[in-house]
Amino acid sequence: MTSLSRELVFLILQFLEEEKFKETVHKLEQESGFLFNMKYFEEKALAGEWDEVEKYLSGFTKVDDNRYSMKIFFEIRKQKYLEALDRNDRAKAVEILVKDLKVFSTFNEELYKEITQLLTLENFRENEQLSKYGDTKSARSIMLVELKKLIESNPLFREKLVFPTLKASRLRTLINQSLNWQHQLCKNPRPNPDIKTLFTDHACSPQNGARAPTPVTLPVAAIAKPSTYVPLGVHGAFPPAAASANASALAGWMANANPPSSVQSANVAASSLSVPSNQVSVLKHPRPSSTPLGMIDYQNSDHEQLIKRLRTAQSVDDVTYPAPPQHVSWSLDDLPRTVACTIHQGSSVTSMDFHPSHQTLLAVGCSNGEIALWDVGLREKLVSKAFKICDYNACSPHCQAAFVRDSSISVSRVSWSPDGNLIGVAFTKHLVHLFAYQGPNDLRQHLEIDAHSGSVNDLAFSHPNKQLCVVTCGNDKLVKVWDLAGRILFCFEGHEAPVYSICPHHKENIQFIFSTAVDGKIKAWLYDNVGSRVDYDAPGRWCTRMLYSADGSRLFSCGTSKDGDSFLVEWNESEGAIKRTYTGFRKKSTGVVQFDTTRNHFLAAGEDNQIKFWDMDSNNVITSIDADGGLPGLPCLKFNKEGNLLVVTTADNGFKILANADGIRTLRAIEARSYEASRAPTEMKNGVDPISRSVERQKSLDDVSDKTKAWELVEIVEPVQCRAVTMPDSTDPDNKVARLLYTNSGFGILALGFNGVQKLWKWSRNEQNPSGKATASIVPQHWLPNTGLVMTNDVPENYEEAVPCIALSKNDSYVMSACGGKVSLFNMMTFKVMTTFMAPPPASTFLAFHPQDNNILAIGMEDSTIHIYNVRVDEVKTKLKGHQKRITGLAFSSNLNVLVSTGADAQICFWYTESWEKRKSITIQLPAGRVPVGDTRVQFHSDQVRMLVCHETQLAVYDASKMERIRQWVPQDVLSAPISCATYSCNSQLVYASFADGNIGVFDADNLRLRCRIAPSAYLSQASSNSQTLFPLVVTAHPQEPNQLAVGMTDGSVKVIEPSESEGKWGVAVPVDNGMQNGRTASPSIANNPAPEQLQR
User: Fold this and answer.
1) Residue 986 burial by CB count (10 A; 0-12/13-18/19+): exposed, middle or buried?
2) What is the pLDDT of residue 331?
3) What is the pTM of this model?
């Protein structure tokens, strides 16, 4: 449930409390889980209604959620047990002991035994610890003191213990305001409307003569006074009920938004609130008497159409929609990912925008106030304008004082007008400049506006009433609209914090502006003086920018919270609610993530020194790139209108141009035209021969665009070429590493050996490693709890034949593993075995947590079945049968709602996770003459659609949605040994594969082309590197660092490997059209289901 829905629940709770629906109130509290009513909980506990106490508590937590929850339930059940003993009801005490307290025996067996021994005593007060137990009433009171402390400390109850501050009868107030607004929109409003139902929109029946509208009140005799209600915590916003599907997008937002409590504008004072003595307040919207400067009249045809739309179903015939777009097939090759050139600007770039029709013409704004025009096809700066105040005397005193105090200034936004004739520039102090663009080297200042008090944070162009205007916003909390003569047309007031961004748009003939402020508030404005039509909270509630797709049909926003969490979402315009949240942001950001859209299909955002791409219709990152390095932590980026070029800022005061195949052709064509033009007779200008300049540019483009000619496989053969660290106390020839994984936090590594022993290594935070995350530069600690316990699995006598398996919970709090015996659940803090289950036969061979529910586990078995097991109730829900040999791999896709299984029979099975029915079964294509032996592993790409399948004979990429293979690579050339293991990097951009001769291959994930080989001599000692039996059995990738991997060796050792600090990554991407270059093969992959003879070597 989204955040605004929570507020709706609170309004309903308040209404139910005022109407004295006591039982319903507490039922809603429990079922929603939004409000823990401590007063009600205390009443039930003091009354000894233990079943109701636990039932109410179960809406907020379960016994095993965390240590606080476990203690809460234990104290309640202990008290119930002691009360049964105190009244000599031994049968009830035994029942409580067996049914309620037994669950705690797995966590503290000694305590459970001690509680059981109380049954043998005539009076349990004979036990020393219970000697001070008084009567039942006092014992319950003492218990409640402890419970309140535990509940307040429990993170699951955070923000659920205080009711938000609401005015009495808030829900009734909102309904009255809605009815009054509906009455205001009546064509023939009656003075005393008769409201008989809330089930349909109100409309007065026609009558002769027009009458003035009057406030509407609910037809109730009186409004009950609310009784005292336990206060509850503040929560975020809710998406209200959907507007009619036929209403326009903005009308949907407006019809559903909470009306503002006050409306202010340049010409209209705050709207009045009438509060009759016998009714709740009703919002009115006074109509202005005049319209400024000939802009849209409040009562003209455009506004009338909006009024019709606000009536939703009454005017569906008035609404027209564009034809649905034709389905187009997209691929990653459509994304501009190849670095075409790097350009040095000279100062930090703060904003960029491509010309709307000249695809290589780029406007750049800088931190020193300079703006520049670049033709990125020519790599030439066409013109540059340093910041200069045109008319100092015309500036306001505040503006003049600001420059006297500090003359520095930066560009906050640069933007082309839709026709490409103007460039708008917003600055961090007061001013906006408009430049007229009349040719490649002709950029003239057209206008200077003293626009805002303080920083001008954003600028955009709009076309209200078919008149080109400039829209700005600033730190003065205002949104302003200007004509091209610098006259202010509208000034929108209503934000309570500096306005961060604006997004003008139109739906059919309705023009509007979205604005976002640094308090996370989103508002929408029509070009009138009635005030904001929308008041919503953006995810993260801090700086957010909104953008439409190129065709204007889809609305997105991207922003960052003050805590550094970033949010990229798509909005459902008809409801004003979040439709989709995109995942993939990994690090806490110190600034605001920037994003852009292209081709009505892709999103891109700059974060973590990378560019991340999303398909608009998929929640997960489809790919991410570092653009050959050199990007800042939060790079700015911008697509051109065709989407074939992407510009991104660099950390060294410049920017890079990235291109797809079409973009490369466009750049080459520009170079070619320039070269041909330069061959005509010309005169030397400024002492430079234009012909030589063009030849140099042509050579530069060839160097950049034809990087395939210079590509060569990177081979890491010396220890100085990479960083590697061996985990202490890991080497044990008798305990080969069978399974290896990083903790989800990235702070540690967990290894499971063939003898069933698990080892954990952790990195500490210190000056050398401030993040505390795993690194090859520092030796970690072999971590053990204070008790010295070791995580040891139940193993059979012939454990050498067992198949170890392991799975880690999302929060790193516990790990499940097995090694031929029972599955053990270990506490990661204490290393204690919390419980065991699934005793053989058959033995467990693979474990995978369900992505939506940590209590559901898929367990692959030795007998080829898959058990879907519920840990909480200790029950196998279903058994899946489809393989012929033991299960060797399991992976869930949350996007496709499928479970994919692989087995030693070389089969891949696809299962629906809703019904657990098998969708399809396919066999991996083995080389001729090979029988199905060895493990087949599977792992999903971050897009949750593609998946990596690994067998000793091949690497393959499958499309799980189509259940077919799209790419394959077989061992060859420098990597000809069998594959022992493979995994995606954390961003799914690379594939790491280990081989039985000690080599490690780094492949491009998209095409499975080898980009780097790490020889055993680079990470093993000289003596070890020559061993024929020492090689990695398993490889795993760091969850946040895409260029860090770890390997588990046949001698029991574990090593973390990273590129050298000077390189920072494993080689460079292999050009797609690369074959045999410089005498070295690019180790091509085989695509699209090759014939069997292609796999023979």
Assistant:
1) buried
2) 80
3) 0.47
